[in-house]
Design brief:
alpha+beta
């Protein structure tokens, strides 16, 4: 299924954890070993899909530090900018012919079915 990359659009898939069980959490431990393996295998197959540039997984939102600048002074707070439920868990890039292809890939990401969601945004090239 190889096509020339001439008209491909580059998408960024932002993986929102929502209620998704992440490795190391109680929710994760509550999954059966088979379920854990299935989730890991799904992420692996997504990463190996042609056109995908595997992205980065982040530590949990609780580990975040958020920086805002007021009156020229950097103010930091512990925790994510958005609520933990809305926090970003990771991202990847996908070069695809169209949005439908990106939606198909997003639907294969376990977070999408485990209580989270995947946001697809076209990447602006060369601005």
């Amino acid at each position: 299924m190889h096509h020339e990359g001439g008209n491909d659009v580059k998408y960024m898939l932002l993986i929102h954890q929502g209620d998704t069980p992440v490795p190391g959490s109680e929710e994760w431990e509550a999954l059966s070993e088979d379920e854990q393996k299935a989730v890991a295998a799904d992420y692996q197959s997504v990463n190996q899909t042609e056109g995908v540039t595997p992205g980065v997984w982040m530590e949990s939102p609780e580990t975040a530090t958020t920086v805002r600048v007021e009156n020229g002074e950097a103010l930091t707070t512990d925790g994510p900018f958005a609520s933990v439920k809305e926090a970003l868990g990771g991202y990847l890039f996908f070069e695809a012919e169209n949005l439908d292809a990106a939606i198909e890939l997003a639907a294969r990401i376990p977070a999408a079915r485990l209580g989270g969601g995947v946001e697809i945004r076209p990447v602006k090239e060369g601005y």
